[in-house]
Every structure is written in structure tokens, then in C-alpha cells.
Amino acid sequence: METTGPRISALIDLAEQGDELSAGKLFSLLYGELHCLARHQLARPQIVDLKFFCGFSIGEVANMQGMSERTVQRRWEKARIYLHRSLRADLPL
Amino acid sequence: MSTLTPDQWQEVSPYLDELLELAPEQRAGWLHSLSKKDARLASMVQTLLDEQRQLNEEGFLERSPLAPGARLVGQKVGAYTLTSQIGQGGMGSVWLAQRSDGRFERQAAVKFVNIALTNRATEERFKREGSILGRLTHPHVAELLDAGVSGDGNPYLILEYVDGVAIDQYCDEHKLDVDARIKLFLDVLSAVAEAHANLIVHRDIKPSNVLVRNDGQVKLLDFGIAKLITEEGDAASPTMLTMEGAGALTPRFAAPEQVTGGTVTTATDVYALGVLLYLLLAGEHPAGPGVHSAADLVRSIVEVEAPRASGIALGESILAEKRSTTPEKLRRQLSGDLDTILGKALKKNPQERYASVTAFADDLRRYLKHEAISARPDTFAYRTTKFLRRNLAVVSLTSIAIALVIGSLSTGLWIANRERKIAEQRFSQVRQLANRFIALDEQVRGLPGSTKVRMQMVNDSLQYLTSLGSDIHGDNDLALEIANAYVRVAHAQGDPTSPNLGLFAEAEASLNNASRFVDPVLSRDPGNQRALFIATTIAHDRMILASRRGDQAEMLKDAATTASLIGRFMSTRPVEVRDLYSMRYFYLNVAAKYLDGRDFDDAIRYCQRALDIAIPGPRANDLRGAALYFLAYARWQAGDLDGALKTTGEAIELSKVEAAGGHASLRTNLANAYDIEGSVAGRADAEPSLGRSAEALRNFQKALDIAEDLAQKDANDNLGRHHVAMASLEIGNILRHSNPKDALTVYDHALARIREARSSVSTQRDEAELLAGSSYALRWTGRENEAKQRITRALELLKQAGRYPADKLEPMTDTYDALRAQTDDYAQSGQTDKAIAAYQELLDKLMAWKPDLQNDLRDATCISRTWTALATLLRRTGRKQEANRLEAQRADLWSHWSGKLPNAQFLLRQSLNQIAPRTAVAASRH
Description:
A: mainly alpha; disordered N terminus; B: six-stranded antiparallel sheet; 41 helices
């Protein structure tokens, strides 16, 4: 099964190669979706803020949020599924 | 756009929670039982779980796209070139690097540290501390080779690269027995003792900082770095917890005094070494195995005595196996002296621990030689009484769940103290998070397509910061951070000089909020450099916004304020390079606004000051292109066309270099430079120009290409659209005389672009200009009615923008252009009398504005052209005398200018009584 769509994975590749336009687009997409997530109260955006946007490790986020690493790990994985789904229009469920 | 609706998500969410909690091998069974109950739900969850596994493998979102990623490869840091990333965390990123000055081959680890070096003093301290640490040389200490700040402001450390594994892993992999482990540990102690002799405390001893190479050599990493990156001058040192917010330290190995904010001494390292030895011998942390929340760890570090290591040895046989022994033998080995030694190293009270690392080492050596050790075992009674004495307030609560104790505020000073620490920790984290966003904003700022996300990011950070606002109480730094965040919000909302969202009124409100935080700081501390910087930024941004809404008086007032604040800032010492650059930028915009105010002397003065700011290093030429462009503009308007062209040439060359970096605003500068070269070469409006239309068209086309590119890349960028409108207008205005059909295409394309933007005064004015300009092209292709409609629409838009009706008309502005288009329409559609009346009115309004015909060329050319148009119409109706009088005025005016600017080519054309081209075309068509 191919999970990451060509669009998003190409964006990530380009962004990692230093393509600023792609980085900007990717960033916008993710940040937009993140806030959508928060609006629906589907996850705590702070975890994604800290983990993805600020680059903290799971352990560090757990300490900051006063949660166990396991809880943070679970919430991060859930948010990631949601974000991935949000960025792909063509995945069946 | 998601294939997963919020409802579906709500439905699967609790099941995912449950499933993800399970160990991977338990998940299939769980799913199987779910599918019996609800097959549809189970299949949904299964699909998402498969995806999750795949995402894990791919490392989806594991790295921030803005974290210094692949693009850092090849970058030079000091004498080293980065080759690959070897680590990443909240504290920063670690890179493998190769010595690149060719002197000798050497690998090193470069550590970028996520700390804000807010001013020169902290930067200096960082470098100074770095050099102290650099003097520590010991065979078991990884050398700190260099500490500094990279070109883009990131502090870094260059360390000896150690290819090894963590000491606990090494011991287990090699099945080292207890004695071998102790011998290895003694190497660690000798390194720490050497550091202590140099008054350097490690502060962060943990297995991942103690590596063992393949050859069995121990190397300690990161000596003293915890201090380097956390302590701020003489300010009270932050507690371990607040530092944990920085992701800098690991509380698992923290000593009690680090958690409670006590003094960190060499005894702190003794404690951490005790934890390390405990881990090496007993195989687990004194607080027990597994994951701990921060609160549990704090509790165990501060109040719980560690169980004896020998007690753990009987647990799992694998533990003994890894120590090449049996559980029973291991228990016997650890009980007695080793338990006692560990107990002494792990004392809660620093004064009861080994007085030095050497004493610790001596006892271990005695143990290896089976001699009597110095530490005395604690009897049970001894331990109990000590514990009671120290923790009287807490012991009475042991029957209550300890979680409640931590949450409670009423359990005595000790707990209250901890609450305070936790509050401080939150405070510091929130502040740090907010500032991290601000730093991200800085990185994203120039990225095309990023306007909206910047807005969200900065807004988030502002929310974080204002949540701290009630605690300001004279905290200058926090006040300035909040002010800074407001300024950034304002930038994303509506900074007309860079990509923005067009929310100009909101931007002004944000700037006012910023002032509320900066002004008190400046009145307390008038020489505060950072406050002056922010205040300058605010004044500058206000000036730009005033100009945007056409409030010239306010704009010039703000320009003067900005210039004086720049002066104050430049008198502070020392000024950092990046701030010099900002000041050059501010001066430039002040100059630009004086240009708008037609004050060429002041404009030239501030251009010169901008160019006079000497910027050392690679940015020496930054913005010089723009400064030259402004100078060119000032010279052009002052009638020095040759000087202007020469300056423009230099400006374009420099701007090209700057624009190659791709930063949106630098490309805007290049577009501006082409724009002015086109204008000097031959702008259609017959302002002072060399009359070379073809050359002008080429330049405007280049400006248009850049602007189009910017507008397309960022759908939210209004500045790009404005430039498309302006360049298209110039092209259309020239082209319509020779090829009205093509001109119309150009105008209409620009109109479509500008209509994509959220309507504002600026877009209304741009649209009005384009409509008025295109009315000529329409009429000349036989579409008279549409021409009239566009003129009417242009005037409506100007009305909405508050520019029309007007008693006074500034020459060569949008309202003038629209009214002139209307007047020309009367003239060219045979309504000569109406046209004469309209031209007369136009002239009256221009004169009411009090143009400076003797000193301002723009005013002179505009009035002169109006006189000519009016004279032509008057002559057509036989009113020769009036016409002659106007012609005479005109001749006088230009003979004045010929005296003022001898040898100016364009003046020759004016004095040849040349009729403005569009009037000539109109006459021939009629």
C-alpha cells in the first residue's frame, strides 16, 4: 500500500532538499490542518506544535506537558494519522 | 479535503487510543475481537493502524521542514564543513563535520544550540565560557574545539567527534563483570576530577554523555555545556525543571538540589555519578524502571531513598548474565561496600555525599583491592531519623496519595516551593515556545506562499506570551518579547513592504499594542538597545502604513521620528551587524518617504546615511542596490537624468545579485530598479525622461515579469499584485499610442490580478489607475462606451478610497490621471466646450494644491502639459489669445528651468513646444 501521496511526498522531498517554496507550502498546509484539528477538538495541537514545529523529542514534550511519554507518543501518532489523512484526498477508508 | 470526516474521526478516536496503548503483538487479537462486534469499525481502525505503521517507517513529519535540514549540508562552521546530521532534539541539532581548511584531516561534531543570544553581552559570555571549557584537556574528555555564533546568528559548539556507544550499553554488550565496570567507571571519575580541579562542573552526567569507543576508551561529552547554555549572566540560575523546558537537561540524572533550585556544585556531579554507577551495577535507575512523569521523578529524586542495589540484583537473571555472573553472586557482590558507596554518593543532602570525586574514586579503588572503605553504612534507625528530621512536613502525608500532595498548595513551605518551581517552569516553557515561533517566523518570512501561516504562527505565539502578560511587573525582557511579537503580528497582517495579508487597520492596532509594552521600558531605561530597536521598528512601520493610507502629514512625522530613533539606536554600543543592516533598511525607507513627500534634499541625505552605515562582513552590499535606486529616483525627479541613469545602472547590477537569493522583498527591489530605469528612459507621462520608449518598455517588462512571479507564488501576497499593476500601467501607457489593442491586453491582465486581492484603498487606487489608463486604449479601438464606463468606474473607486471628489489635486497622481482621462474623453469625442471647461477645472484644482513650478520638475511638467492640452482645445474653438497666453506662461516656465538645469535634453523637447503625444494622436484621430 502506498500511503503518502505523490503530492505531499514530493513536497516533503523538495522541502528537505531546501526548496523554499515547497517548504512554505508544506508548512502552510500542515499548519492549516493542524488548526482544523484543534477546531474540531480532535487532538491537542500543542503536541504537534512542540514536536513538529519546534522539533522537541517525545520525552521533552512529555515533560513540558506533564504527561507520560506514552500518552504523548499515542497522541502524536494519532495527530499524525489525522494530518496525513487531511493531506491526502484519495485514501479509501 | 480529508477522506476522514470529523464525525468518523470522533467515532474511531477512542478505539485508536485503546489500540495504540497496546503492545504491537497484542493489537491483532484486539482488532479481531472488535471485528466480531463491529466489522465496519474494525476495518476502519485497521486501515488507520496500517497507515500509522507505514508513517512510522517513513518517519512522516519526524523532521520539521524548517529545522536546519539537508540544506545545512556543506555549510561551513568555523574551520569545519557539515557533512551529515547525527542528532536532533529540542536542545538543537548535532552534525558530523569535516575539517575544511585543508590543514589536517579531522572529524568533529558540530552542535547547534537552540538558545537566543539576545544581545552582544550574552553572545560574548557564550564565547567566553566556551573558551574556558576549551582549555579542559583530558584523555577521557571529548575536547571542545570551538564555540561561536554562525553567520546567521545560531550559536554553535564544535566538539571532538566520538564514535562510540553509551557506557551502559557498552558494558552490557561486552558482558563486563562488576569489577570491569568499576574500572571503566574509574576512568569517568578521573575525567570529572580533572574538570573539578579546573572549577568546571559537568551538570549533565548521563549514559548518553559517557561514550565508550571500540578500543574501550571512555570519553565524556558536553562538559559544562549545560551551564553554557542556560545561565544568564548574574541572574539566579534556573532550576533543573526550567532548564528541562529547554530540553537541555535530563531530570532522570538530576540531583535533588538541581530540581529544587539549590546551588549546583561539584557535589551535584557526585550525585549524577552515583546514579550512573547504580545504573551500571544494578541495571536500573534508582527511581525504578520504566517511564516516569516529571512529577514522579521530582518526587523520587527529592524524597525517596533509592533501594539498595543489591536488592535489585535478585530480580531478573538477565541482569546477572550481562555481568557474567549469577543473580545470587551479583547480590552478594553488591551488598555491603558497594551498597554503602552508592548510598553515600546518592545522599539527598549534598554535604553528606563524598566531598570530592577523588574520595569517591578512592573508596572504589579500596573496594577493588578489598580494603576497608571510608563510607559508613546507614543503620535503619539512622536512616529513619534523618528522613524524619528532613521531611517532617511530608511524612505526615504519606498515607495520602502522593499525587494529591503534589497538586496541593497547603502542605507546607517545601511543597509551596515546588509549586513555585513548577509555575516558573511553565512560564519559561511558554515563553520559550512563543519565542521559538518568533524565530520560525523569521525563517519563513521570505518564503513565498508563507504569509498566512506566519500570521497563524505569530498569533499563536502572541497568545502564549499574553497569557504571561499579567506577570510583567517591570520585567523588561518579557515586555520587549511581547512587543516584538505584536510587531511581528503587524508585519504579517499588513507590512506593505513585504508579503502581507492586507489587514492594514489591524496592523496599526497591533503596532499600538507593541508601543504599550515598549514605551514603559524606554522611559525606565532610555538607552535600552533592544527597546530602541523595537521602537524604531514601530515608528518605521507606522510611517509605512501612514503612507499606505495616503496620510502624508502623519507619514512625514513618523519619518522624522524614525530617523531620530535610528540616531539614538546607532549611538548605543556595541551595535550588532544584523542591526546595522536593519538600520540601513530603516534609513532607506525614511528616504523613500521623503521622496514621496517631494523633499529631495532630505531623501538624498537619508539615502546617503544608509549608504554610509558600514556593514562588516558578507552583508556589506546588502540593500545598497535599493539605496542606489532611491538616489536614482531622487536625481531623476530633481532633473539630473544622466546621473539618475548611471545610479540606476549600479542599482540594477547590485539588486540582481541580491535578488538571486530569492527573498521576495529583494526581488521587489530589482523590479523597482527596472521600473525606474524604464521611467527615466521614457515614461509615457512625459515626466522628465529621455524619450526612449522602446528601452522603457523593455525595462518595464522585466519589472512586470518579476512582479508576476511573486504574485503567482503567493496567492496571499498583495505587494506582488501592486507591482504587477504599476508595471502594467507603465507598459500600457506607452504601448497604447502605437498598439492600443496590445495595451488593452496588458491593462486587462493587471486588472484581473488586482481584483484577486482583498479590496483595500491600495487595490482601489491601483484599479482606478488601470481603468483610467485603459480607457484611451478602448476608445482608440472603437469601444467608446466601454471607455466611458471605465472612467466612471475609476472615479467611483477613487471615491471609495477617499481620494475623490477633491478640491486640490496633486500632480501626476491617480485622481489626476482619472480626471484627465475623463477630460480627454470629452475632447476626443467632440465635446470640445465640455472638455475646455473640464481642463480649466483640472488646472484650477492643480493650482489649488500649490504646485512648486519653479523647483519641482514633476509639478512643472504636469502643469505645462495641462496648459498645452488646454491651449490646443482653445485654439480649435478660435480662442487664440487665451491659447497664446498659456503658451507664453509655458515658455517662461521652461526658460526658467533651462537656466536651472543647463544641457538637460528633456528640457530641449519641452522648449520645442512639443505637444504631449497622446493629445497629438487624439487630434489626428478626430
